[in-house]
Amino acid sequence: MNFESELKQGRFVVGKCTKCHNTNWPPSEYCSKCFGELSYSPVKEPGIVIEWSSKDGQTFGIVEFEGIRVMGAIQGTPKQGQKAKITNCTFDGSPKFTFSVF
Amino acid sequence: MRVAVAGYSNTKFSLDETPIENLLVSATKQLFHNTKNLEQKDIDAVLVSTNNVKRYLAPVLSELAGIAPKISHSVENMCNSGTNAIVSGFSYIASGMADVVLITGAEQAENPGQILDWDSSRGEFQHPIFWGTIFTKSHKRKFGTTDEELAYVSALNHKNAQDNPYAYNPKQYTIQEISESKRITEDLRLLDCSRSCTGSSAILLASENVAKKYTDSPVWIEGIGQKTTSAGFTKNDLTSIESTIQAANQAYSMARIRPNNIDVVEIHDAFSVCELMILEDLGIVPKGKAAKLVPELYNTNNKKINPRGGLMGAGHPLGATGVAQIAEITSQLQGLSQKRQVENAKIGLVQNMSAAATSSTVLVLKN
Ligand SMILES: [Zn+2]
Asked: Please, which residues 174-213 of chain B have a Cβ atom closer than 8 Å to chain A?
């Protein structure tokens, strides 16, 4: 299962090691702890808002899912530690995420 | 084997589109001009520090400078390529493989080292301003750092750059001008950001057996620390730079000094907030207190921190920055920094980092 092709289908998947069960980030072919094979599955939602800022009225920030932190656009007015879900994700040269906070 | 900085050179930083080869040769030519008794045949290794995509630039520079070295290769690690090259040169000498190493760093203003396109964790937010603004927001939140305190960092660096003849934009700005400069993000103004520019700088490293041939006042590299924590921004703690903390501890331990022994410092002020985080993480001030130190330095004309104007004031030619930092500390410890001179400087420190603060190098130098 390929991170980029899944993301293009709107699914944010991460690799879990079939040997040591480590959740791996960034996407890779093998586990960064034990070089075991990875099995990719969608991240568990909701995530947690870690930090954010804005540019030209667009809020963006870091959201953590299962210990994995990624940056994306944020809809709504975030608060630290607030829950967030993925409203949109795709891959176009780089990953693109949109989160909404609740 | 002790290793000395036995020579150095700078060229004027600019926004010119000078070819990389010309930049490399300019700094090298200037180093030969500045250094007594140096002949091409003395040089055992030529290391080029750059993010430029042209290949085998160290052999190219060697040929253009009439050097036929044993060892010749590039060193690239984004914004701290320069100090990485110096650590490599140090190691060649310390291991006995070389006595004299030339390190030339050069970059063009437009270069591929500016964007971390590999880092998936940053999504579409790949430009450095996005990690700069997140660090700034977190520092404000945790320590109550104000926009005015951040403006002092830029004011101090630009003020220091006034006395640096190689700075790309030696212009002084008031706190008000900085606070009212173009808004880039919610937490960053234009004058809170360093700027990628064109420039080159060179260093001659020599073993203690031969250093005195080239200089009457060698400056010794006494402490080295390096740490890479990851290659992705979001794995950072957002209010401190773990790679710098660990690199500093290694360097202090090797040099047998404490942070309060340091007389003059060159740090990697990519953004205003970075200077505060680095001063704290080097242990020069307690955590959360750097924002109070910087206005004090500014108001008392104290040049201890970034006497050449830092990346913000002098400009940031990526591959040359770490080399220029070493050149400045060497000149300070030789008492040759003229208007920038920190009085009676004996111990100097360089902190250079890359890839959204995930890699740091810290060097301690003594005269
Ligand atoms: Zn594993």
From this structure: 184-187
CA B4 to chain centre: 18
CA angle B11, B320, B229 (to 5 degrees): 165
| Facing A97 at nearest CB: one of B123, B137, B233 | B123
Q: What local confidence, expressed as pLDDT, does residue A1 receive?
A: 57
Of B130, B137, B138, Cβ closest to residue A71: B130
Structure tokens at B77: 């690690």
What local confidence, expressed as pLDDT, does residue A61 receive? Answer: 97
Same domain, B215 and B323: no
User: Rounded to two decimals, what is the model's pTM?
Assistant: 0.96
Q: Is residue B210 part of a domain?
A: yes
Q: Say what the ipTM of the complex is.
A: 0.96
Q: Is the domain of B102 the same as that of B134?
A: no
Residue B291: predicted pLDDT: 96
pLDDT at A91: 94
| SS3 per-residue string spanning B197-249 | CEEEEEEEEEECCCHHHHCCCCEEEEEEEEEECCCCHHHCCCCCCHHHHHHHH
Return the amino acid letter for B39: E
Is A96–B232 a contact, with Cβ atoms under 8 angstroms apart? no
CATH class of the A47-101 domain in this structure: mainly beta
Residue carrying the six token digits 């960092």: B153
Q: What is the pLDDT of residue B169?
A: 80
